[in-house]
UniProtKB/TrEMBL annotation:
It is found in: Cytoplasm; Nucleus. It holds the Pfam family SBDS_N. It comes from Rhypophila decipiens. GO terms for biological process: cytosolic ribosome assembly. One of its GO terms (cellular component) is nucleus. This is SBDS protein C-terminal domain-containing protein. Residues 14-101 form the Ribosome maturation protein SDO1/SBDS N-terminal domain. Associates with the 60S ribosomal subunit. Residues 146-184, 234-258 are annotated as: Disordered. Residues 110-218 form the Ribosome maturation protein SDO1/SBDS central domain. The lineage of its organism: Eukaryota, Fungi, Dikarya, Ascomycota, Pezizomycotina.
């Protein structure tokens, strides 16, 4: 006599699961691999290509479908199964297998390395580093961060010599060290929970701060044009601190020190490639550190009264072998 299997049990294999907990009950849907992310990003619009079977499960691996009474209790009596599936698909947690997780992590890791290698250069030669060298440098930072965490968590052994520094001074030193440590960005490795671009920015900040290898942001190449009528105008001096009184001569000295609009623009430029006057317009082409771009853009927008323009010719100037 054949063994009768439960009518509600459906065997599914080779699936990606999306789990969603509501009203203290866990529900699952069975999807095709990689299709959930495509659907969430808008690339895939046909649910038939996403779902292996249009059912809601209590346990996909055991093939146990969710009873209608439990669905009604959790989602409401008037909510259709299709709407429940859409809610789980939108808000649920995608369960990824070990191989898929490793492949995804490696993909993000390679993307981060590629972005960082294209944005950082050796400050002496202005040449780019290979992704292999960037990878080794980040590994050094990751190991350093983990070692720091381990040392912080470990308790000092009994019998440790008491430092001669007085308690207030020691506390002040510890506070200063802690503040300095917090200010320096750290790198603990790549994760799949953040975009590759944001992680690449974090990696660049850590590399520049700690310098496991000599690195600097690749400079931007800009073209700046400005009407000659405003170039010789004096730059507005920064406001004086409260309570700091100066006479007229002091104010004039401060104004003179601020310089002209042309002087201020050139102060942002690390290296001038070319500058010329064509008709009533002054044009300069030069290299600027990425961190100075916003300040330069704001200055031109605020001080030239619409008679100055800034154009990005190259986001990252590098020299390759």
């Amino acid at each position: 006599m054949p063994i009768q299997q439960p009518g509600t049990q459906i065997k599914l294999t080779n699936v990606s699961l999306v789990r969603y907990k509501k009203n203290k009950k866990r529900f699952e849907i069975a999807c095709y691999k990689n299709k959930v992310l495509e659907w969430r990003s808008g690339i895939e619009t046909d649910l038939d290509n996403v779902l292996q079977i249009p059912n809601v499960f209590i346990n996909v691996s055991k093939g146990q479908t969710a009873p209608a009474a439990e669905l009604a209790k959790a989602f409401g009596k008037d909510v259709s199964v299709d709407d429940i599936i859409l809610e789980i698909l939108k808000k649920g947690e995608l369960q990824v297998g070990e191989k898929e997780r490793s492949a995804q992590l490696e993909r993000v890791h390679n993307e981060v390395l590629s972005i960082v290698a294209s944005k950082l250069v050796d400050p002496r030669t202005k040449r780019v580093y290979t992704t292999g060298m960037i990878d080794k440098a980040l590994d050094m930072l990751s190991a350093q961060a983990h070692n720091t965490n381990n040392n912080t968590d470990s308790k000092p052994a009994s019998g440790t010599a008491t430092p001669t520094t007085t308690a207030p001074a020691a506390a002040a030193n510890d506070s200063t060290a802690t503040t300095a440590q917090k200010e320096k960005p750290i790198w603990t490795g790549v994760s799949t929970s953040k975009s590759a671009k944001s992680q690449a920015l974090d990696a660049m900040k850590a590399l520049i701060a700690h310098q496991p290898i000599p690195v600097a942001r690749a400079r931007m190449k800009l073209r700046i044009t400005c009407s000659t009528s405003v170039l010789k105008q004096g730059v507005k001096a920064a406001p004086k601190p409260a309570g700091n009184k100066k006479d007229d001569d002091g104010d004039e000295a401060q104004q003179h020190k601020a310089g002209t609009v042309k002087d201020k623009i050139l102060s942002f430029i690390e290296q001038v490639e070319n500058q010329d006057v064509v008709g009533s317009e002054w044009e300069v082409i030069g290299f600027v550190e990425p961190g100075a771009f916003k300040g330069l853009s704001d200055f031109i927008g605020g001080e030239t009264k619409g008679q100055g323009r800034i154009e990005v010719l190259d986001m990252a100037v590098t020299h390759e072998d």
